[in-house]
Amino acid sequence: MSWSRSTTSAAVVLGALGASACGSSSTSSSSPSTGSGSSATSTPDALNGGVTVLAAASLTEAFKDAKTKLEAAHSGLTLTYSFGGSQALVTQVQNGAPADVIATADTATMQKLVDGGLVAAPSTFVRNKLEMVVAPGNPKNVQGLADFARTDLKVILEDPSVPAGKYGRQALAAQGVTAKPVSLPLDVKSELLAVEQGNADVGIVYVTDVSSAGSAVSGVTVPDSQNIVAKYPIAVVEATKNHGAAQAFVDAVLHGAGQQALLARGFLAP
């Protein structure tokens, strides 16, 4: 298969999902093409209307940057995001939640939607690496993955159903490390917040999450030889009512302003 801080974000936009996905899309997607279509100047802006995007929590800052750029460049565009754990977003689509685009943090989770015929063929749009997250200044002197076995540390890992939780366990297992997490949050931003608030001493998130938190946390590098590279796929949801704009957003994430925003936030090119 080849393709592409706040945990309250998803809750904030739940009430807007239906309106953004369905209510403003028909004009741009159903405009008749009565001419030959040869004149570029007469082609309507594809990024138009409401587009609802379900996106992995680790994409929060980069996708918000992209929203600012895209809405400024396309006056008729309204982007609505719902961020969360990839597994939860897939369940939303499976349950019929209105959405136009979905972007997850692993290909296996996206494959569930492919197998169900619920999305168009996905494309990998960025990659990411794992990083250990600790309190500012690393007061517990965490040096590497082996420290996750220390009994004096409050370890936190995402639930195994979350891509980052799966990746973190794979990295630890490869080093023969058994961790006993104090909690199992359902997305990386919740894990990051637990470390920020002192409810955990060390966790495993993505490099981009540590960077986005600024001085609120510190990062401890996971060597490339011990790291897991995450691949992020994006796809148009088949049930979208604004297919043209949904595909145009995907294109912007793959090649345009969206991709630029992602790279600026520290994601790796696909």
UniProtKB/TrEMBL annotation:
Residues 22-44 are annotated as: Disordered. InterPro entries: ModA, ModA/WtpA. The keyword Transcription does not apply. Keywords: Metal-binding, Molybdenum, Signal. Gene3D superfamilies: Periplasmic binding protein-like II (3.40.190.10). Residues 1-21 form the signal peptide. One of its GO terms (biological process) is molybdate ion transport. One of its GO terms (molecular function) is metal ion binding. Pfam families: SBP_bac_11. Molybdate binds at S58, S86, A164, V188, Y206. Belongs to the bacterial solute-binding protein ModA family. This is Molybdate ABC transporter substrate-binding protein. It comes from Candidatus Amunia macphersoniae. The gene is modA.
